[in-house]
Amino acid sequence: MNASPKPRLKVIGVGNEWRGDDAVGLLVARRLKADQLPQVQIAEIRGTVTAVREAWKDAAGVIVVDAVVSGGPPGAIYRFNAHGGGVPVQLSRSPSSHGWGVAEALALGQLFQELPPWLIIYGIEGQNFGPGQEVSQEVAAAIPEAARRIRREIQAWLGLELL
What we know:
By secondary structure, this protein is an alpha/beta fold. It has one domain (9-128): HybD-like (Rossmann fold, 3-Layer(aba) Sandwich). 31% of the residues lie in helices and 20% in strands. The chain has four helices and five strands. The chain has a five-stranded mixed beta sheet with strand order 2-1-3-5-4, sandwiched between helices. Strand 1, helix 1 (24-34) and strand 2 (40-45) form a beta-alpha-beta unit. Helix 1 (24-34) packs across helix 4 and helix 2 crosses helix 3 (102-111).
């Protein structure tokens, strides 16, 4: 029995849709999923260290999208290469209720040498993380731009012409 081929590229939207701006990673992932991008697997996960590490396991290239809290303006979009120094300290504070997320998964992945060969992280500055809250206007307005930047990143990585 042949195993199905692994996707060349995986986009992982991280978040909790019941905690306001923490849902932004999921919403960007859903927007990209609607594009039906070739050779790209889109996943939605909650931001636990285990879930993040499991989601990127065995992928050749990964783009992670998550909410961040750095004190910057709500809706600001940050991009960083995980192999280029990791998550800046000011962006590593997790807005999640459990306090552990992408930054900690990155640190553990580096420690155990389990990072994907190509790993890009997009963080979107949030401001509203209360239980049962809606996504703030500023963060909602950043979703199309974040998706556009990620589509461009996918196009460059895969060498494809995408709409």
